[in-house]
Amino acid sequence: MTPQAATPSYRRLGVEARRGQLLDAALALFARHPPEDVSLDDVARRAGVSRPLVYRYFPGGKQQLYEAALRSAADELGLCFDGPGQGPPAARLGRALDRYLAFVDRNDAGFSALLRGGSVAATSRTCAIVDGVRRAAAEHVLTLLEVAEAGPRLRTTVRLWLTTVEAASLIWLDEGKRPPAAEVRDWLVEQFLAALTVTARRDARTAALTEMLAAEARDA
């Protein structure tokens, strides 16, 4: 692979600033190439530093750098569902999906390599990082919807829907980011409401939430 050229920079940076610079360089490469196709030399060139300097900060080599980059990206992705709480619940959910799809758009092909674990670089630790962000996203969704106490049926519905969001995002990338992100967002919200309607037949808490969202839609 031929990484994008970078302007060499050996300016003195603090430990955290230098580590952040290397992670940014790694994320930029992982966003365009599978982890197995990215070398430490690529990261060094992208950051404008020497290869030994990369090893100084990540003595575990590429695997350690990949896991750190994954954790950084996963943290950013998790924040997509942890945004401002203004407005009706369905509107908040739509804005969260806007942030999520914007993240997918920015990371492009690297979304799969970074967050689906379909890479030879995947380990139990990377899988745990991804699973943690999925669980956190489910909790954020429940908070967005003002659910104070959710039972297992509602939690399962939310987590199943998040797998739909993830799969739809990957397909969206495969389809050249078509249809437009706004249309994908609206479709995903409708998918969520449909899933809630099914669960509501078996769960009173979900039925109350479904009715609230339906009332919001009627008043819109």
Explain this structure to me?
The protein is an all-alpha fold and 220 residues long. It has 2 domains: 15-66, Homeodomain-like (Arc Repressor Mutant, subunit A), CATH 1.10.10; 69-219, Tetracycline Repressor, domain 2 (Orthogonal Bundle), CATH 1.10.357. 70% of the residues lie in helices and 0% in strands. It has helices at 15-30, 40-47, 51-57, 62-79, 89-107, 110-115, 124-144, 152-174, 181-200, 204-219. Helix 2 (40-47) crosses helix 3 (51-57). The protein is elongated. The protein starts with 14 loop residues before the first helix and ends with a helix. The model is unreliable at 2-9 (pLDDT under 50).
Tell me, rounded to a whole number, the average pLDDT.
Answer: 85
Give the SSE order as H and E letters.
HHHHHHHHHH
| CATH topology group of the largest domain | Tetracycline Repressor, domain 2
Tally the helices: 10
Number of domains: 2
Low-confidence segments: 2-9
Percent in helix: over 70%
Second rung of CATH, namely the architecture of the largest domain: Orthogonal Bundle
